[in-house]
Design brief:
Structural class: mainly alpha
Strand content: under 5%
Distance between the termini: 39 Å
Low-confidence stretches: 260-313
Number of strands: 0
Helix content: 55-70%
Largest sheet: none
């Protein structure tokens, strides 16, 4: 399963020719009553869509209507009702990546999958997460960080899962962060960190998570310096300012994602002009990154300093 994680750019001459046929099949009512027929069409379709989400430059503007079709998502939602035990981990993973702007529907699908297959979440922990962390350490890329970010946004139980594995995940992000040279990759990494700190509601638990991000002390040039914790504190605690060039890139990313997601998801710090705040403030409390329920925040797998007690709330 882990070897099929989208890691290379798709072959346009093959995938873009197959995609219309696959989507047409999913749109055929005769396919819907049969879980096996739906699966046969959904598996390649979602995998192709996931790859193009990670490598958008490989598709031309003329392909965007096809790549943004929600017919596969509707078919997957139907399958989650018809036969939730048919939802495999690769299928769920590809859907999360393929539809970053449809977090409510994805969360509903995942709830059905986790309810019908109690071991699925643990499979994600033992199969997908180690594969991603290994890639972060051996060959860091914005695509790997993007997958982590999208996983985290997709369901509250995944937030809880990543929180319990934070002592494994955050050092990998910290060590790979200097090699992420584009603003999008760094923005995704910072938001993974921010969502985890928000999930424990700050306090001593939040400080413990920040220590896993590394040390501070450097140029304070957010998204330019190589320190994860330094950029995190500049970005979300107002200990620095975003430079004009980086702010321009954040605005570009905001405009790009706003076409499909009306709520921006970009860094925000306290020291902002009113105009800057209006541009990016919505990202701080993005509803797609809910805090995990208390049962996850207090999970026994957490080290003592990362467990929430009443003084941290």
């Amino acid at each position: 399963m882990t070897r099929t994680l989208p890691s290379t750019s798709p072959q346009p001459h093959l995938h873009l020719r197959a995609l219309p046929l696959l989507i047409s099949r999913l749109n055929d009512p005769s396919t819907h009553p049969s879980p096996s027929s739906l699966l046969q069409a959904l598996q390649p379709t979602l995998h192709i869509l996931a790859q193009y989400q990670l490598y958008p430059s490989k598709a031309s503007a003329s392909h965007q209507p096809l790549l943004s079709s929600t017919i596969p998502l509707s078919a997957l939602l139907h399958l989650s009702t018809l036969s939730p035990h048919s939802l495999t981990l690769p299928l769920c993973r590809d859907a999360i990546i393929a539809y970053p702007a449809h977090t409510t529907t994805i969360s509903t699908i995942l709830t059905s999958a986790f309810t019908s297959q109690p071991t699925l979440l643990d499979d994600l922990r033992t199969q997908v997460l180690p594969s991603l962390v290994t890639r972060l350490r051996l060959s860091p890329s914005a695509q790997v960080v993007r997958v982590l970010h999208l996983l985290l946004r997709s369901h509250e139980e995944i937030v809880g899962l990543l929180l319990t594995e934070s002592d494994y995940l955050l050092p990998a992000l910290r060590d790979s962060y200097p090699q992420l040279r584009d603003v999008r990759g760094k923005s995704d990494a910072l938001h993974v960190c921010h969502a985890l700190v928000r999930a424990v509601r700050g306090g001593q638990s939040g400080e413990a998570l920040k220590r896993l991000m590394g040390e501070t002390g450097g140029s304070r040039r957010i998204l330019v310096s190589d320190g994860l914790r330094e950029d995190y504190e500049c970005c979300f605690e107002g200990r620095g300012r975003i430079g004009d060039g980086e702010m321009g890139e954040l605005r570009r990313l905001r405009d790009e994602e706003a076409a499909s997601d009306p709520v921006g998801f970009l860094p925000f710090g306290r020291e902002r002009t009113l105009a800057e705040g209006k541009v990016i403030a919505a990202g701080v409390h993005h509803p797609a990154v809910p805090a995990p329920p208390s049962s996850f925040a207090r999970a026994s797998a957490l080290p003592p300093e990362l467990r929430i007690d009443r003084t941290d709330a």
